[in-house]
Amino acid sequence: MRHKGKALAAAMAAGVLILAAGCSGNDSGNEAGSGPGGLSVPKIDKMATLGTGEGTVNVIAWAGYVEDGSTDPKVDWVSDFEKETGCKVNSKVAGTSDEMVSLMKTGEYDVVSASGDASLRLIYGGDVAPVNTDLIPNYKDVFEGLKNKQWNSVDGQPYGVPHGRGANLLMYRTDVVKPAPTSWAAVFDANSPYQGKITAYDSPIYIADAALYLMTTQPDLGIKNPYALDDTQFKAATDLLTAQNKMIGEYWSDYTKEVQAFKAGNSVLGTTWQVITNLAQADKAPVEAFLPNEGATGWSDTWMISSKSKHPNCAYMWMNHIISPKSNAAVAEWFGEAPANKLACQQTADKNFCATYHADDEAYYQKVWYWTTPIAQCLDGRTNVTCKDYSAWTQAWTTIKG
Amino acid sequence: MRSFLHRHPGVRLAGLLSAPLLWLVVAYLGALAVLLVSAFWAVNTFTGEVVREFSLQNFRTILTEDVYRNVTLRSVGVAAAVTVICVVLAVPMALYMAKVASPRSRHWLVIAILTPLWASYLVKAYAWRVLLANGGPVDWLLGGPGRGPGYGLFATIIVLSYLWLPYMILPIYAGLERLPDSLLEASADLGARGSRTFRAIVLPILVPSIFAGSIFTFSLSLGDYITVQIVGGKTQLIGNLVYANIGAANNLPFAAALAVIPVLIMVIYLVAVRRSGALEEL
Amino acid sequence: MTLSAWSRWGLRVFMALGLLFIYVPLLLILVNSFNGDRTFAWPPHDFTTRWWSAAWHNGGARDALWTSVKAGLGATAIALVLGTMVSFAVQRFKFFGRDTVSLLIILPIALPGIVTGIALDSAWRSVIEPLGLGKGLFSVIVGHATFCVVVVYNNVLARLRRTGTSLEEASADLGAAPGQTFRFVTFPMIRSALLAGGLLAFALSFDEIIVTTFTAGPGITTLPIWIFNNLFRPNQAPVVNVVAAVLIVLSVVPVWFAQRLAGPAAGASRT
Questions:
Q1: A349 CB near a chain C CB, below 8 Å?
Q2: Domains in chain C: how many in total?
Q3: Range from A59-73, A160-174, B161-175, B228-242 carrying the lowest mean pLDDT
Q4: Is the residue at C62 inside a domain?
Q5: In terms of domains, do A40 and A86 share one?
Q6: pLDDT attached to residue C11
Q7: Which of A31, A79, B226, C7 has its CA 20 to 30 A from that of A198?
Q8: To the nearest whole number, what is the mean pLDDT of chain B?
Q9: Largest pairwise CA distance in chain B
């Protein structure tokens, strides 16, 4: 559900970005910033030295990111932290990126596990502070492929610590789908023999999957970034999905539904997450999942600190703790995504965990386009056209489903 | 004091009505009004803020694009089908409970009908997902994998009927229970046949109760967006559209414009059934 | 009654089939709570009690249950007070707009939950939050109470219609103060109607998810929300089955008590 919320809630970045641009424009003259569409970030100082804990830290996180044993006594990476640092963790689970942003704006929270669509809004909105990574010893062990990315850093200045990542893969029933697919073409084939048994992710953000496929199959459309689509490109993507709708058995949005559908055979081919494949295989379903040759969409989250934090020392300690090898491994395994800390790979209960999730395989993640909010300012840097924003994506998704 | 109140029924009435009306009018109707007004606004695509300028654009989109008409018709069709199925199932069951079962077993039957209301709605919907799965119990009953209805519109109707059935049985049962047996006997003694008795005596009691139950089944089906996600395959209903626009796209004005559709349908429905006295039978 | 033996048998068979229809899915929930497969594969291949022990140790579920009980009791209490007041007003007085009141009361339950939900949500955020009261458990109670008023109202109204006012008049004539009349005459008359209405109100609130989704403040997890969050995680989904099975069994207790206290038809929507 959480991914759904996140993917779904990818809407509002556009506005805040522009708003921020307007404000900072007043502050710093007409100087163009380095963000998309020439935005610049509000100037906020990062913390210089780490002091003693304030006794409390207020956390906003996705479900499953902050577990204190109340779900399962064995799943607990909060109690140790509280004992070691004396910082009591008050966590709130947010359902959507929208909720995360509005909660961060209240100033009552110290840290947030922001996704790619929320993190930009928080940075350009001045709600989060740059992070002094010298104060976070575990930061040096984070995979290089996750550092200094568009959604967590500006001009080389990190605004948070990476938490983990994952890709949207293609899964199929090995006993039904023959020969084994190699490309997304399998799910977009209008004459597929698997009509009525194909599944797709139920969110407007899935339009990006179609755009990604068109990047290789119709290069003349000129799609450079699946989240930056102008009118022609957008129409091509939605036409592809409208045609695909006839082949779809059901759209999925939660894991239990997808695992059950593949086990029973209601679905035999479609998008998935690694964790879903693992669960289906653990329950002895004959399924395989892989990263098709066109690449795939995916996600990556970042822990960020509020610019108005009342407990900055505890917040820094939390950010260090949550990406420590042990905690990062525990979260990654519980949630089902690749950890951000390379040392976490030695701490996982399943010794093959990092291999399964391609945690250290940069070539693999090179092919992943992380979920980002589509906004009117084209994210690929074009300034001569307007791109479709997330509201347009949502309404198009409605029309595609019919 | 006492005589004052006695002489001024208006004061007593005001005392009784002010708190509930304040609650319903201010809290509820006020909230609804704000929502409906926002349907005429728009979201600025640049700032993401709601722009408070009157515009019919949202309604124009809804009225001109086929998809919204199709989804509306589909949703009303589902709600109507669910209501009809519930009536067909509920009337004989309620008749049995009220007029055939012994008072002792009547007791237990009411408990048996009420108990499922406490099992989570979501869990029940998921149980149906398992029942209807490829090769699941329903397929098996019908002769093998793929024989059952699978997921889709039909499954949605079945599951919604299942979920809301108790809300139909209870008012019909309550209505029939109030119908004195002596009245039926008198009708028979006076020479009326079973069908005549049914038409002349049972039906007038039954109709308002059925309408009362239908308010539940119809409106609960019309607004549902969760069951259809679980068993509806690729089907979408009007609730899904509202949810997608508010929960995901943060486009409150457009979601509000979409919400006007079920509101209108329900208000028309309520006004239509009010004549039958159904509103007093809930 | 004038039903022939045949139609009696027909109805009996129909009732049995109807109960089968109602109970087979519930039975499946119970069976699946022992199913070793995390996504309820059919037929079940392993028998396990580990979901039951996991549920027992699940603090989140207990907290959510407690939150739901608090929300349900709060909403029921408000609904009892408001619903009783309106039903007295409508039954004992004639006033302009009386018919509109009954329509108004029904509206919250007749309009789809998602409409009620987003209306309350946006109103709360734009009006009450600026006053310093964020969404929390209280906003859930407000949302639930709004649609629970109607069930209390209808139950009490039906009772008042049947009993009339002669007993209360007699009590007043004999010199009882209004408080005494209410306590010794009116209240005993409507007690079972209140019980029936209150029980249904509590049940409505207890299983409500759509309005709750929109009115719950961050961190407020009612049982349906907890179920919603956990059903979609295969590691947790079987535990949800256990919780549902327990709820079904436990629910017999309040329904049975209400029946004992209030006579055969209490617990139905009205008496």
A1: no
A2: 1
A3: A59-73
A4: no
A5: yes
A6: 92
A7: B226
A8: 85
A9: 78
Count of C-beta atoms within a 10 Å radius of residue C77: 16
Report the share of chain B in percent with pLDDT over 90: 30
Residue C19 forms part of a structural domain: no
Give A89 to chain B, closest Cα distance, Å. Answer: 28
Identify all chain C residues contacting B250, using CB atoms and an 8 Å cutoff: none
pLDDT, tens digit (0-9, with 9 covering 90-100), for B63-100: 998 999 999 999 999 999 999 999 999 999 999 999 88
- To the nearest 10 degrees (0 to 180), the angle between helices B153-178 and B66-95 is 40
The CATH number of the domain where A397 resides is what? 3.40.190.10
Neighbours of chain C (3+ CB pairs under 8 A): A, B
Are residues A232 and A186 located together in one domain of the fold?
A: yes
Name the pLDDT band for B159 (thresholds 50, 70, 90).
Answer: very high
Q: C217 in a domain, yes or no?
A: yes
Statement to judge: residues A223 and A291 lie in one domain: yes
Q: Which residues of B touch C31 (CB under 8 A)?
A: none
- The full DSSP string for A2-67 is HHHHHHHTTTTHHHHHHHHHHHHHHHTTT---SSGGG--PPP-PPP-S-----SEEEEEE-TTSS-
- Domain housing A44: 8-166+298-370
Mean pLDDT of A4-25: 37
State yes or no: pLDDT of A7 exceeds 70.
Answer: no
Residues of chain C with pLDDT under 70: 1-3, 218-219, 233-234, 258-259, 261-271
Nearest CA in chain B to A400: B67
Q: Considering only CB atoms, which chain B residues are within 8 Å of A386?
A: none
A213 vs A7, more confident: A213
What pLDDT score does C266 carry? 43
Helices B121-131 and C223-231, axial angle in degrees (round to 10)? 30
Nearest to C232 among A1, A60, A70 (CB): A1
Q: What is the pLDDT of residues A265-317, one digit of tens each?
A: 999 999 998 888 888 888 888 999 999 999 999 988 999 999 999 899 999 99
The rounded distance, in Å, linking the Cα atoms of A239 and A242 is 5
CA distance A102 to chain C (A): 11
Burial of C128 (0-12, 13-18, 19+ CB in 10 A): middle
Hey, is A247 helix, strand or coil?
coil
Q: Compare CB distances from C40 to A69, A260, A282 and report the shortest one's residue.
A: A260
Q: Which of C39, C229, C235 sits opposite A63 (nearest CB)?
A: C229
- Chain A residues within 8 A of C218 when measuring between CB atoms: 60, 92-94, 99, 103
Looking at the domain assignment, is residue A381 inside a domain? no
Cβ–Cβ of B67/A98 closer than 8 Å?
A: no
Domain around C105: 67-269
Residues A196 and A152 in one domain: no
Q: Which residues pair with A91 in a beta bridge?
A: A59
Provide, as residue numbers in chain A, all residues whose Cβ is less than 8 Å from the Cβ of C55.
none
Token couple for A384:
């001569």
In a domain, A378, yes or no: no
Per-residue exposure over A292-308, b if at least 16 CB sit within 10 Å of its own CB, e if not: bebbbbbbbbbbbbbbb
Interface contact B244-A391, CB threshold 8 A: no
Shortest distance, CA A231 to any CA of chain C (angstroms): 31
Using the Cβ of C133 and the Cβ atoms of chain B, whether some distance falls under 8 Å is answered with: no
Q: Residues A287, A397: one domain?
A: yes
pLDDT at A197 over 90: yes
In CATH terms, the fold of domain B65-281 is MetI-like fold (1.10.3720)
- Please tell me which residue, B34 or A223, carries the higher pLDDT value: A223
Domain co-membership, A62 together with A118: yes
The answer as to whether C191 is a domain residue is yes
Contact A391 B45 (CB under 8 A): yes
In angstroms, what separates the C-alpha of B124 from chain C's closest C-alpha? Answer: 7
Residue A159: pLDDT above 80? yes
Residue range A324-356, pLDDT digits in tens:
999 999 999 888 899 999 999 999 998 899 998
Every domain of chain B and the residues it spans: 65-281
A376 CB neighbours in chain B (<8 A) are 45-46
pLDDT category of residue A27 using cuts at 50, 70 and 90 = very low
| Whether residue A153 sits in one domain with residue A57 | yes
A268 lies in some domain? yes
Number of structural domains (chain A) is 2
Length of chain C: 271
**A14 and A136 in a common domain:** yes
**Which residues of chain A are within 8 Å of residue C40 when distances are taken between CB atoms?**
260
CA–CA dist A338, A353 (Å, integer): 8
CB C219 within 8 A of CB B116: no
